[in-house]
């Protein structure tokens, strides 16, 4: 076995915190001997009996003389007792011995060290394990207390490098994650996240315990009381010390909370349902988010924070009746327009993917009360066109280009400043396409270098309507300008070079806002109002496309996709696949809330390569990665041109697909505005078209799902890296795909 990290470990104070470190380091074989320093002999005996330490003494001075370089002292006594321990060490500590502590307040420990030594010595590494339990004492010590928990160290400028390294290594050896923070920041963060909840829990139990009816209260107190007050069973001395030691920061947190509680009280008093719903829905969303964060499933978690790999076994066919999740574009717009409407808008079929949730969160942050989503149902308490409030901080929209570009238009017309930020992929995407027309309207917008995010939008500008000819076919740019037009003097119109999705125009009309449409031109005037409505979001044709392609390429397939939105500005994939010879049947056509909807049945039939008509490009813009997989399975060549926009999506989709297809043995030659794919269907017959291999989706949801579909015609396993962002548009893709017949595993 390798040399242990430490020589001797001296733990001063063998309670839950000290005892657990001793147990864990012993179990990890990372120290030669553990010596406990306790106040009462009985505790020492107990600790030895429990195997927490090898021996225990009642005086620190007694062990100091034995220590040598490489040994470490962990001070784990209540915060206010730390100074006396330091005083006992002074002048007696051999060189090369490191001292660290576990107190919950760091400013106080640093001050104590200064009082004792004149300055904070270089061998002292102040630290705080963010772990614990309401149980206390040596009998509560647990070997796994620190596993997967965080340890905050607050080293000072002159803290010794060796000592710091040793303390870091020690905590890592017991399974903890170590991070550094300045002393002041630590104390403020802990005041809010740990100390305030303890004040409230102790206070609440004490209040109820004093109540004349207390017996009944305790007898009938069910889950809520029990869950909320668990921490009031914590060690009173330890918590009294923390309150006294972190006085200023805790007072600030208590005052903030008291203000909030007073406001809640008066809302209850005056029966203000909206206010209560606002606080409760925001708190629920925050708490749910926190729960997901703990489970490592947060929707704002960046792609680097979470690694998901798809492993697709070759072969299979798809069959059955499926309903894919709600349309992403409409889900975004339902939140935006519902928030700006007067009255309560009810949405069904909302896509609970990360992108649409980012939009939802942004409006919550701007003071809109939004209930849900629960099973695709969302209730939005609109605040009217002029009712948004300044958010408490920057609005983070994750991976979502639609959120950022549409919000930019809306926010340009508000009277407050906002910053919009996104994840690594979004931070590389072009935003000048919205910043330029908005500036023409009088907006004040700053971007990052080269027109990339973040966007800083200055409020309080008076916008003027413009007549804007879009330089590219982009529904996001069109929508951005039209939404800014709601706040601009006079008339705003957009002229698009080719038809793009028109959900904004349709949904504005659905909210009773007049939009004139004349071929490629859309026009609206400011000064109107949006009236709350009901929205039924159909299934997303972009998500349905993965199953359309799956059925079209895999012999024996037959799927029925229900309730799919078939807006003519979104039908490109159906048109292109049909032109390639696919067997696609639409049934049960109907209109739902101003949008056409149908069930789509797709059966396997061999495909032929085609030259894709350029007028179909904007109508199938998000579907090309999947269509490239279809092209690879077709007989003959498929040529795409006029699609340079694909290079600025969540990834450069032309390059990403060409690279992946080549790895899987299909010839795919990228061009500046498209791709040429040599279909292998002719020679392969109904057999494998793709080889196996590992491809990288580059964190782009649609690339990931497309290669998963390719496995149906693969000869070997396909591993797809960086698939976490599938959750942006199709959170249950792996589950649905497996149900349909793909042999897909997500790890
Ligand atoms: C979208 C428009 C399209 C599309 C995106 C969603 C929208 O982008 O790619 O996924 O909801 O308006 P562009 O308009 O930039 O082409």
Mean pLDDT: 94
Work out the strand percent. Answer: 15-25%
CATH class of the largest domain: Alpha Beta
Number of domains: 4
Q: Which topology of the largest domain does CATH recognise? A: UDP-n-acetylglucosamine1-carboxyvinyl-transferase, Chain
Strand arrangement in the largest pleated sheet: 3-2-1-4-5-6
| CATH architecture designation of the largest domain | Alpha-beta prism
Q: Number of helical segments?
A: 25
Oligomeric state, counting identical vs distinct chains: single chain
Number of strands: 32
Task: Look at the helices and sheets and give the structural class.
Answer: alpha/beta
Bound molecules: shikimate-3-phosphate
Write the layout of secondary structure elements.
Elements: E1 6-12, H1 16-27, E2 31-37, H2 41-49, E3 55-57, H3 60-64, E4 72-75, H4 82-89, E5 98-101, H5 106-117, E6 124-125, E7 127-130, E8 150-153, H6 161-173, E9 177-180, H7 183-210, H8 214-220, H9 223-229, H10 236-245, H11 247-270, H12 273-294, E10 310-313, E11 319-322, H13 328-340, E12 342-348, H14 354-365, E13 369-374, E14 377-383, E15 395-396, H15 401-411, E16 418-421, H16 432-440, E17 444-446, E18 455-458, E19 467-469, H17 475-485, E20 491-495, H18 503-510, E21 516-518, E22 521-525, E23 534-536, H19 541-553, E24 558-565, H20 572-579, E25 583-592, E26 595-603, H21 624-633, E27 635-640, H22 653-663, E28 668-671, E29 674-680, H23 681-684, E30 693-696, H24 701-710, E31 718-721, H25 733-740, E32 743-746
Parallel strand pairs: 1-2, 1-4, 2-3, 4-5, 5-6, 8-9, 11-24, 12-23, 15-16, 19-20, 30-31
Antiparallel strand pairs: 7-8, 10-31, 10-32, 12-14, 13-14, 16-18, 17-18, 20-22, 21-22, 24-26, 25-26, 27-29, 28-29
The protein binds shikimate-3-phosphate.
């Amino acid at each position: 076995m390798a040399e242990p990290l430490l020589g001797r470990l001296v733990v001063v104070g063998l309670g839950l915190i000290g005892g657990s470190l001793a147990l864990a380091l012993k179990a990890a074989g990372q120290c030669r001997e553990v010596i406990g320093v306790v106040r009462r002999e009985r505790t020492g005996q107990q600790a030895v009996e429990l195997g927490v330490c090898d021996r225990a003494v009642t005086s620190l001075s007694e062990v100091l003389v034995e220590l040598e370089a490489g040994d470490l002292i962990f001070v784990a006594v209540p915060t206010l007792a730390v100074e006396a321990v330091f005083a006992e060490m002074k002048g007696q500590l051999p060189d090369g011995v490191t001292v660290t502590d576990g107190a919950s307040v760091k400013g106080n420990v640093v001050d104590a060290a200064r009082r004792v030594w004149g300055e904070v010595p270089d061998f002292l590494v102040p630290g705080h394990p963010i772990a614990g339990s309401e149980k206390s004492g040596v009998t509560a010590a647990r070997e796994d207390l620190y596993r997967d928990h965080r340890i905050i160290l607050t080293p000072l400028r002159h803290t010794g490098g060796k000592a710091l390294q040793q303390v870091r290594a020690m905590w890592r050896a017991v399974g903890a994650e170590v991070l550094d923070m300045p002393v002041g920041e630590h104390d403020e963060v802990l005041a809010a996240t740990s100390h305030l909840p303890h004040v409230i829990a102790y206070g609440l139990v004490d209040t109820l315990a004093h109540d004349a009816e207390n017996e009944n209260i305790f007898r009938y107190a069910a889950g809520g009381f029990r869950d909320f007050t668990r921490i009031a069973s914590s060690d009173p001395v330890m918590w009294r010390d923390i309150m006294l030691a972190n006085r200023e920061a805790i007072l600030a947190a208590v005052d903030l909370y008291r203000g909030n509680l007073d406001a809640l009280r008066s809302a209850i008093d005056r029966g203000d349902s909206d206010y209560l719903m606002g606080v409760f829905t925001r708190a629920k969303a925050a708490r749910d988010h926190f729960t997901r964060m703990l489970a490592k499933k947060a929707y704002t978690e960046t792609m680097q924070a979470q690694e998901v790999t798809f492993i697709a076994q070759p072969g299979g066919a798809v069959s059955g009746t499926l309903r894919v999740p709600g349309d992403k574009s409409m889900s975004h717009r339902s939140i935006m327009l519902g928030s700006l409407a007067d009255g309560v808008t009810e949405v069904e079929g909302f896509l609970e993917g990360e992108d649409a949730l980012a939009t939802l969160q942004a409006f919550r942050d701007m003071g809109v009360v939004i209930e849900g989503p629960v099973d695709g149902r969302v209730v939005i308490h609109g605040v009217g066109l002029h009712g948004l409030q300044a958010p408490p901080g920057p609005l983070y929209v994750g991976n979502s280009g639609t959120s950022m570009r549409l919000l930019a238009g809306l926010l340009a017309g508000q009277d407050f400043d906002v910053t919009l930020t996104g994840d690594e992929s979004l931070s590389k995407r072009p935003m000048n396409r919205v910043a330029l027309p908005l500036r023409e309207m009088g907006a004040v917008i700053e971007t990052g270098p080269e027109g990339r995010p973040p966007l800083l939008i200055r409020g309080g500008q008076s916008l003027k309507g413009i007549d804007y000819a879009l330089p590219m076919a982009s529904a996001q740019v069109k929508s951005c300008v039209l939404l800014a037009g709601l706040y601009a003097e006079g008339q705003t119109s957009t002229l698009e070079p080719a038809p793009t999705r028109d959900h904004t125009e349709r949904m504005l009309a659905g909210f009773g806002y007049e939009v004139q449409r004349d071929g490629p031109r859309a026009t609206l005037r400011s000064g109107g109002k949006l009236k709350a409505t009901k929205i039924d979001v159909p299934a997303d044709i972009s998500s349905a496309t993965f199953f359309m392609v799956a059925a079209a390429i895999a012999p024996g397939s037959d799927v029925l996709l229900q309730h799919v939105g078939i807006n003519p500005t979104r039908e490109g994939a159906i048109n292109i696949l049909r032109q390639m010879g696919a067997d696609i049947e639409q049934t049960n056509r109907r209109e739902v809330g101003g949008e056409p909807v149908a069930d789509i049945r797709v059966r396997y039939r061999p495909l032929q390569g085609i030259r894709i008509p350029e007028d179909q490009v904007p109508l199938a813009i998000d579907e090309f990665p999947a269509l490239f997989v279809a092209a690879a399975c077709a007989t003959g060549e498929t040529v795409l041109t006029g699609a340079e926009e694909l290079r600025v999506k969540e990834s450069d989709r032309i390059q990403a697909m060409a690279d992946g297809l080549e790895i899987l043995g299909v010839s795919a030659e990228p061009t500046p505005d498209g791709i040429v794919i040599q279909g292998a269907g002719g020679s392969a017959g109904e057999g494998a078209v793709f080889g196996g291999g590992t491809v990288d989706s580059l964190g782009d949801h649609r690339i990931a799902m497309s290669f998963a579909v390719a496995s149906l015609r693969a000869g070997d396993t396909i591993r797809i890296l960086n698939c976490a962002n599938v959750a942006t548009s199709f959170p249950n893709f792996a589950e649905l795909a497996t149900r349909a017949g793909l042999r897909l595993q997500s790890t």
